[in-house]
């Protein structure tokens, strides 16, 4: 749920709502303005977020965000990068959602969440994965400045979904629906990510 107080990356724009008029105060409608970063809660990264001259989020094909997906457990220590050896299930879907459990409360910021290794990105690409999702604010570590996972993902034209809430989801195969808004030129978009039973 997106609510005032949900943490954002330090220095980014927090969520706020400005109410312009209200029915309870005599207006004919209630009307409000939303102000926030586009990298809020569960969100898709546009490639222009991490690569100069790359396309915005509206240019990502929607098949990246709808269809056969797999939740995979990746047991790692906080502040480390997930490697191939850390995957607890075999990759079986083109959309892989990694549950690291290193950012357990989306309403409480912490800096020691896990990231992805370049080795893992290369492996996922070799398996035909075109979308990777994580239960952390970023596919790279909080302290990372060179963003190796983002860069490897860009080389393989993989889409990124960050900030997923997977704590109550069992590992397995699902149908993913996580459509970004068609925000022209933007570097990201919040999504309402849902999983449904996969029927093959």
Major sheet summary line: 8 strands, mixed
The appropriate CATH architecture of the largest domain is 3-Layer(bba) Sandwich
Number of strand elements: 12
Into which percent range does the helicity of residues fall? Answer: under 10%
Give the SSE string. Answer: EEEEEEEHEHEEEE
Structural class: mainly beta
Instruction: Write the CATH homologous superfamily of the largest domain.
Output: Putative cyclase
Looking at the structure, what is the overall shape?
Answer: globular
Oligomer: single chain
Q: Evaluate the radius of gyration.
A: 17 Å
Instruction: Indicate the low-confidence ranges by residue numbers.
Output: none
Instruction: Give the termini separation.
Output: 29 Å
Strand order of the largest sheet: 11-3-9-8-6-4-10-12
Output the CATH topology of the largest domain. Glucose Oxidase, domain 1
Number of helices: 2
Question: What is the domain tally?
Answer: 2
What number is the mean pLDDT?
Answer: 97
Question: What is the CATH C-level name of the largest domain?
Answer: Alpha Beta
Beta-strand residue fraction: 25-35%
